[in-house]
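QA checklist item 7 of 12: single-chain prediction sanity check.
[x] sequence parsed
[x] length recorded as 125
[x] structure emitted
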Amino acid sequence: MLHLNRQSIQKDEKEWKNQGFQLYSFDAEKVKENTKEKPTWLHVGGGNIFRAFVAPLQQALLEDGTADTGISVMTTHNMAVIDDVYRPYDNLSVAVTMYADGHFAKQVVGNIVESLGCVRNREQD
């Protein structure tokens, strides 16, 4: 069984691809390092629209070498998004596009390098 985390993406790459998932090919560790050294993009509000439409655009820039940093995402009101949607899955998500003919395109979005909750009582973030 596949699990949405970075270890599974590396270890089970062939199976992910056999299941029809498009995987990122950039060096995720290097992107994470670059982002920590020179943060470029902090996105506030990492909901569904961001994960399905906006984040894949930055991922495309990473894939073609136009960019070398990922995205830090934060929320100011719903910590469950960070604690339940991002962190348990190593900040990965799957963007699924359904076409009129009934087929699906499934892309693992892997360019989110950190997820933060921005509230007073959350000092670790």
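[x] summary fact logged: The chain has a mean pLDDT of 95.
[ ] second reviewer sign-off
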